[in-house]
Amino acid sequence: MKKSLEINSALFMFIALFFLSAMTLLFMLEFRFSRGIMTDYEESLRRAAVNKTNLFFNNLRAGAEGAARELARRPEDRDAVLAKMFTFDSRITGVYILDSGGEILSGVPDRRLKITEKWFLLPRETAVLGVSGNGAGQMAVSVVTPLGEEEWLALGYNVTGFQQEILQEFPGDTCKVALFDQNNYPVIWPFSPEKLDQFTGREEKFHLDGMRYDVSAVKVGRPPWNLYFFLRENNFDTYRMITIMFLLFALYCCLYQFLVELWRVNSARSYFENIDFTIFDYLHEGVIISNNAGRIVFANQAAHEIFSERRAVLEGLPLKEILGYIENSGDEKSRYGTITLKMSDRLLEAVHSPIVKKGKVLGALTVVGADGKEGKTCRSVLGKLIDALPLGVVHLDRNHKVVQANLMARWYLGSLETGMSIDEVDPELAGFIYRSMGSGSLKPVQLASRDLPGEVVGVYTEDGTYAGALVLINGAPETDRLERSRN
Description:
This protein is α+β, with helices and mostly antiparallel strands. The chain has 10 helices and 20 strands. The longest helix has 72 residues, at 2-73. The protein is rod-shaped.
């Protein structure tokens, strides 16, 4: 029956491990697929903005080159042709003929262009230059194209329509587009004007109104303009990392538990394959079984009653929380044997033994002797007897701490509280007790500092384990000694 349960447990863990592995793999593929979709979507937004900007530039260049060809066909009537060019494109705000040094030879309207670039140093080809005001509160972009050998045709185009087109193409907060000319003048700025001072063009992250944007840039046109993309940060990679790490952690836990169930390394119960553990509940002694990790895997009813003042449920607890003697020691043998457990009102004997199968330690078995009524009655009678003795009597445990002391002992030695170390009471007496450990006979002692004679005898269990010491003080009170010294 027990083998069947263990097989079912291992099978269940295998199924859970399989489904968790499949789920982890599917999540990784899904995240990769979603990341690819998001990347393609962001790239499509960038391409759309770049294509619209290039289309705008190409349209301006084509208009300027067409106007230049019209002037070339009618060189004798330039002023009329220049005035007629405003009908070619409603966006044209000014038409000028310049010499190779940049001076205006003729133009409509009669005002100077604000072109700060050394445009005439460019190769003789059509170029989209920077922007300037057109006098009506609107921005105009300057386009120059060669006109003959020594002259240039310059046209100013209103960019309001292009600005509106870009802003309408990217209306939401997911993606914003900004365009700066070669002089770093903002032709398109999708945020409020006061936020422009916070942007330098070198940022990779841009914080605005509680939102974080990833910033990227691309150069368009010649001379190059800077096209900036503000993509709202979605923390997708962070969520993906957290989810994958959580799934991998759960997968690791499942795999570890599966191996534990398969090899049965986490339970000492495999040592008792054909034993029903409920039989231990009929014993008066406490039975505790712990695994090789030091955790309790079974405790019978008597063990729960013995340690009820410490913990109500023992299964799953570290054994050292119940048996405080257990320490991390390099010597394995020192961890096992007969030990004495000190409870709040009694001392218990326990046997702690390893569980070994095929040369491998699977855990430990601890049997705690029940504290019967006879034992309690015997200790009560002995306590009364100690208090009635005319001698000073001190009972020390194996750690040389006071277990019990009568009134006469307190008269001779002073304060003797339960649990106090004998080193704190009298270092001279403590040193003698340490030196006499191992002897089973009475050892006389003379406390020179107190002028008191006494005797010390070691206390041992039935198997010869040292359990403490008994100190007998048979000196007279200090007042009697003073009286005898006067006589």
